[in-house]
Amino acid sequence: MKRLEKCCCCASTRTGTLITATLGIILSIITIITVWVVNKHDVSFRTFIFAEDFDKKLAALDIPRIILTINLCFTILICLLLIVAVQKRRSWLMLPWVVLGIVLAIGLLISVIHTAITYYLDGQDHVILATIILIGGLLYLCLYLYLWAVVFSHYLDVRDEEERGRYSKAPYKR
Question: For this UniProt entry, which segments traverse the membrane (predicted)?
Fold first, then answer.
């Protein structure tokens, strides 16, 4: 993979990485607030339940909301770890974000395709909504992958710097 030199043609990959981590924290906090403030009758959170005799009282405990909140708290933690890694120039502290980022990108792709197909199969009333979800989700995925590439490029730069020593010159290119 070719390394990016800059983020958005003007900022360094270091700055882009800090912006990406900050955006991750802000969006996670907004999502947590939205999940718990929005009336649960207005928005339905679906989950797969495999137990045959699942207690209805247990279902009322908002299990999908709790799971989503826990996941978002871990996202905030990993984004904070990314900020510390950039400040301290430690590649191994960036690694959790890099790995989580690619896993989330794969999950996002599957989710967008599944949701769009579900709406397409629901009938003619949902074709426009399905198309909007598909196009919007794929555009969001492209932006997400670009930001991931910025962070990954900075990770590689820091890792290479650690391997050759912080103050030594760049290796001679043949």
Answer: 16-38, 66-86, 98-121, 127-156
